[in-house]
Design a protein that fits this description.
Length: 876
């Protein structure tokens, strides 16, 4: 082993990059300096090239100005002649013009145009086409003529395409006759001198020069940079040319552009600049390389100097205790962490045998063999029990590894260890958490499994009985959902404490999860012991719970199974106990039931229904039936109550009392209830479109009433199916109405604001508080069928019905009687003032299509209305 890391690993990433960064910065500075010097030299080369081009272009400009100006001055003689002899004849004009052509080498022809009509041309040959031309009829030249007259100055026109053919540059001069006695100055006409444009360009050198320069000229009609191109490629003006102004007579201007034929050379195309750039770059790289090597050398020296210091301090800085021994196992150094952990100072440890200073995994006589094996394997690691100097014992995790010298032999051994007391405590805590419920501290399912297996083995050996009691707290989910999980958790903790007080210390109380607990009663001789414990549990858990500011009530349903009769394995016994517990719930809750074999079949059927119920909602296996509600005074159909039926693909029609309790134990009832509400309102809207004035009554479960989405769902269906106030009625039972009465009142008030009518169903079977009942925003009470059944023969039932109807009327509520099966019952209830009745006297609950046929038979639905419906079927 090597105690100290290699020098390169001791440097940070920044340190390792420093030589490269210094070299790069130096190279970059050299490159920038080289670029600056080379750039200046390149600029000088470009300036010299532009100066040479400008000098050549200047000569061209001078010749161009000279040729045009000499022609213009020659033309002034003809102007003066006409001004002095306005009545000249053709012979006189010919003599003057002939002389002009003799001296003007670029003159093509001369013309005079009195009143702007060309009357005189010399030479006439080849120019006959211009005679009698009116300038007023030449749109291309009209603007320059007008400018000439307005400014009374020379005007340069063109180059233009001549009427007589070819391209010419025209110098036009206005002629004004001087004023005489009795006659003011007047405009006579104009004189035009046409110059050969190609001859003029050739004379200036623009077309014949071979100096490697391309030229272009713009400024048609003497407009300078504003005029169009008249010679060369006008794109030269966009290539950074040398620009020179060509000054013509009377402020006319051309612009001359000059660019090297091969384009402007880059300064770096110059040999001198290129050599300077390459030399500067090479020098910069050489200096950067030298600095890089220098920096690396300096770093190696720094690493070597710091290695000794690091080796001395690394052991002192470790949190683990370090003890280094020589090959004879004598201590040569320890770090401060060693002294802090063991209580032994460095002075007391040096020179002593390792085993005499701290706990070692070998005896003194076996030291050589052990260290030899460490040297061969390279490492030993394990847990060792040790004792501090003050006598306190502690566990430590010890590692021993050899340190080799240059020759490869073992020179030292390093003992590295740390106190793992906290780790051991954490392991014990993790073990506890793995076997106990985090909320109650009771054994969990995993621990229960082990303890039941142990208890079963004990019972087999000693011939005793073992009872498993499964406890489920009734309506716990309602408390949890309504008051919050913190209240539910506090209730479960209290349940766990009460269960522990009900059993012996040798018995086991465990929590499976949620509100389910299991109690194991061991070493029983008779099942009466289990019954006694169950009786104590029912009594203890039924007592009120004071949780925060709430006085809570929750009762237990207890299932009991006995080993070995009710199951010889843990899984079999718990499964059967679970069946017994559900049987206790089915028989009214707050009781205990011993398992018998018939419960197993019932539990299996329950599980199968629960599994199928999930699929039934998804696959739309439910159908709605509707039971008519008849007005007692008129016998008229005024409403229907919605009842759901499950059309199972294998079991056929499953009655509600089989699947509704299962759905109510989970959130399935909310999904089912939402579907019922949607389908019932859809069917009601179809009946309304047929002209039927009905209301539909839909039952709400406790879970639906507490659902945060109920108001939204009701609003949606009212809007979707355009239902008016009073057309939808929601029914809740007495027991639901009394649960969490304050929240129920708020929800009912909000539903009534939406225009929904509200009814208490099965009135008289629960434990209504009249003080709460009168506060509820109800519209009607529904008398349970159990009071209607014997109303004709049982005076008590008759009295109850009469009292209920009277109470409802005093509270401003109407009454619906359920379960009416005879005409006598119907008449009796009508005499008592009951507004509506429903029951088999009128009809059993029917699918929508059959109910429509029933209504048609009663004359409340015309055949035409029925046949007009889409598909003639309204069943869902």
């Amino acid at each position: 082993m090597t105690l100290i890391s290699t020098p390169s690993s001791r440097f940070t990433a920044t340190d390792r990059l420093r030589p490269m960064v210094v070299a790069l910065v130096t190279a970059l500075a050299g490159f920038l300096l080289t670029a600056y010097v080379a750039g200046n030299q390149a600029s000088a080369v470009r300036e010299r090239e532009r100066a040479a081009v400008a000098a050549e272009a200047g000569q061209v400009r001078a010749r161009l100005e000279s040729e045009i100006n000499s022609a213009a001055h020659l033309s002034l003689g003809l102007v003066s002649f006409i001004a002095a002899n306005p009545d000249f004849d053709r012979a006189a004009f010919t003599r003057v013009a002939e002389r002009m052509l003799t001296y003007g080498r670029h003159v093509r022809n001369v013309s005079a145009a009195p009143d702007n009509i060309i009357r005189y041309v010399y030479p006439l040959a080849g120019n006959e086409a211009v005679l009698n031309v009116r300038y007023a009829d030449m749109p291309a030249q009209r603007a320059s003529i007008e400018r000439m007259i307005a400014t009374r100055r020379f005007v340069l026109a063109g180059p233009v395409d001549l009427v007589q053919g070819g391209i010419g540059l025209i110098n036009r001069f206005p002629v004004f006759l001087p004023a005489t006695e009795g006659r003011p100055e007047q405009y006579w006409g104009l004189v035009s001198v046409v110059l050969r444009f190609d001859s003029l360009l050739a004379a200036s050198g623009l077309t014949s020069r071979n100096d490697g320069i391309r030229y272009a000229v713009r400024g048609r009609d003497g407009l300078g940079a504003e005029g169009a191109a008249i010679h060369g490629d006008e794109r030269l003006f966009e290539r950074n040319p040398v620009l020179l102004e060509v000054v013509l007579p009377d402020q006319a201007r051309w612009q001359l552009a000059a660019v090297p034929a091969r384009g402007w050379r880059s300064g770096f195309q110059d040999t001198q600049v290129l050599v300077l750039t390459l030399a500067g770059a090479a020098l910069s790289l050489a200096i950067a390389a030298l600095l890089y090597l220098r920096q690396q050398h300096v770093q190696r020296l720094q690493a070597r100097d710091s290695q000794l210091s690091l080796a001395a301090s690394v052991i002192d800085s470790l949190n683990e205790a370090i003890m280094v021994t020589d090959d004879a196992d004598r201590v040569v150094t320890v770090n401060p962490a060693f002294s802090a952990l063991t209580g032994v100072s460095e002075r007391d440890a040096l020179g002593r045998a390792a085993a005499a200073v701290t706990g070692c995994p070998y005896a003194e006589d076996a030291r050589g063999v052990f260290l030899g094996r460490v040297a061969e394997d390279g490492l030993w690691r394990g847990e060792v029990e040790d004792r501090r100097l003050d006598g306190e014992r502690y566990p430590k995790l010890l590692s021993i590894y050899p340190v080799r010298d240059v020759a490869g032999g073992v020179s030292h051994y390093v003992h590295s260890f740390s106190d793992i007391s906290e780790q051991k405590a954490a392991e014990r805590q993790i073990h506890h958490l793995a076997h106990h419920d985090m909320l109650t501290g009771l054994p969990n399912r995993f621990s229960l499994q082990q303890r039941m297996e142990q208890a079963m083995s004990h019972a087999r050996r000693h011939g005793t009985l073992l009872a498993a009691l499964m406890i489920d707290m009734d309506h716990f989910k309602d408390i949890n959902d309504t008051l919050g999980h913190h209240i539910g958790d506090a209730l479960l903790i209290e349940v766990g404490k009460r269960l522990q007080r009900c059993v012996r210390q040798s018995d086991v109380v465990a929590r499976l999860g949620g509100d389910e607990f299991v109690v194991l009663v061991t070493d029983m001789v008779t099942t009466l012991t289990a019954a006694a414990v169950a009786e104590k549990i029912v009594t203890a858990l039924s007592a009120p719970y004071a949780i925060d500011a709430y006085q809570l009530h929750s009762t237990p349903s207890v299932g009991i199974g006995v080993f070995p009769a009710d199951g010889e394995t843990v899984d079999d016994l718990l499964r059967n106990v679970d069946s017994a517990m559900y049987h206790a719930k089915a028989t009214g809750r707050n009781n205990y039931q011993f398992f018998d074999r018939s419960m197993s079949a019932s539990a299996s059927e329950r599980l199968a229904l629960q599994s199928s119920l999930h699929q039934a909602i998804a696959h739309k296996q439910f159908v709605l039936h509707y039971q008519p509600q008849i007005e007692t005074g008129s016998g008229r159909l005024v409403g229907v109550e919605v009842l759901v039926r499950w059309l199972h693909p294998e079991r056929g029609l499953v009655p509600p009392n089989k699947f509704i309790p299962i759905a109510e134990e989970s959130d399935l009832i909310i999904r089912l209830g939402e579907w019922i509400l949607q389908e019932a309102c859809h069917q009601l809207s179809l009946w309304h479109s047929m002209g039927l004035d009905l209301r539909v009554a839909v039952n709400l479960s406790a879970r639906q009433l507490r659902s945060k989405n109920l108001l939204r769902q009701v609003k949606d269906v009212l809007l979707k199916y355009d239902l008016k106030p009073g057309q939808l009625e929601l029914e809740i039972t007495e027991s639901v109405a009394m649960e969490d009465a304050d929240n129920t009142l708020r929800m009912l008030a909000q539903l009534r604001e939406l225009g929904v009518e509200l009814a208490i169903d099965d009135f008289g079977t629960g434990y209504s508080s009249l003080s709460h009942l009168k506060l509820m925003p109800l519209h009607r009470l529904k008398i349970d069928r159990s009071f209607v059944k014997d109303i004709e023969t049982d005076p008590d039932d008759a009295a109850i019905c009469a009292a209920t109807i009277s109470l409802a009327h005093n509270l401003g509520l109407s009454v619906v009687a359920e379960g009416v099966e005879t005409q006598a019952q119907f008449a009796f209830l009508g005499n008592l003032g009951c507004e509506c009745a429903q029951g088999f006297l009128f009809s059993r609950p029917l699918p929508a299509a059959e109910l429509e046929a029933w209504m048609q038979a009663r004359g409340q639905l015309a055949q035409s209305s029925l046949s007009a419906m889409p598909g003639n079927s309204t069943s869902v």
